[in-house]
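Researcher: Structure for this, please.
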Amino acid sequence: MEKFEINILGCGSALPTTKHNLSSQVVSFRDKLHMIDCGEGSQLQFRKLKLNFNRLTNIFISHLHGDHCFGLPGFISTLGLLGRTSDLHIFAQPDAEKVFRPLLDYFCKGLAYSVIFHSFDPFKHQLIYEDRGLQVFTIPLKHRVPTAGFLFVEKPKALHINRESCDFFQVPISQYGNIKAGNDFITSNGEVIPNHRLTNKPQTPRRYAYCSDTAYEEKIVPIIQGVDLLYHEATFLHSDLVRAKETFHSSSIEAASIAKKAEVGQLILGHFSARYPNEKVLLEEAQSVFPNTILSSETKSFVL
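Model: Predicted structure, token format:
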């Protein structure tokens, strides 16, 4: 099975604390790394996790609040100091380049690589990135500023040849491509051998959804339906729901309710408010609605 791993660099909210770093994650899939958000100090967390800077290809920015993007200039500068030469692609709403291009032009002159911005509409669910094994879609979220989550989807693999069955029915190797594409096999005497007798189904494609920052938003449920792993912000306890609504954030109960409605495999809580010295209270509250819930924490990794 090919590697599909989520690495937590930071899971705190806007107010910095000594316990949590600001929002950032790295999705490791096959031979590439994809960063989600880039709070201050993300390059230090990158090193703590012993991630390979050269494998980073894309950075996806959910929204333009500082705790999710103030780390970009420093991170880009660090890559330059490390001698990077390959292009870095940043996916964000259109204003991102207007904000960061002047900073890069001033502080990151003479980079040996190009920083390429790709804008997307945060109010639409759409495909924004694709390579040979992975697709990334936006998830429109509900926050004080235009915000999008991200859905990482592994591409379906071809059917696997059942070599023993193919040998039994004397299927020529030259026909294996057609068989893997789903076609039946017709023998020399005209007998049709159904494809399912000649192949084994591949592993079900894995999916990961990142939803932060957002108020409770049931419209995302069809988009994330059945994902293997969901990271959903749980900034507040439900007793602080009034504050959650004022700031367009979610309570732990609301995060769990989304996970339950979407029938996800597992829920990770994150984006914790500094007002709670122990996030266990958030976990217990969420587990009362969706038992398969865990807490995120810095340098923790989750394998799909």
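Researcher: Any notable elements?
Model: The first strand starts at residue 4 and ends at 10. The two ends are 10 Å apart (CA to CA).
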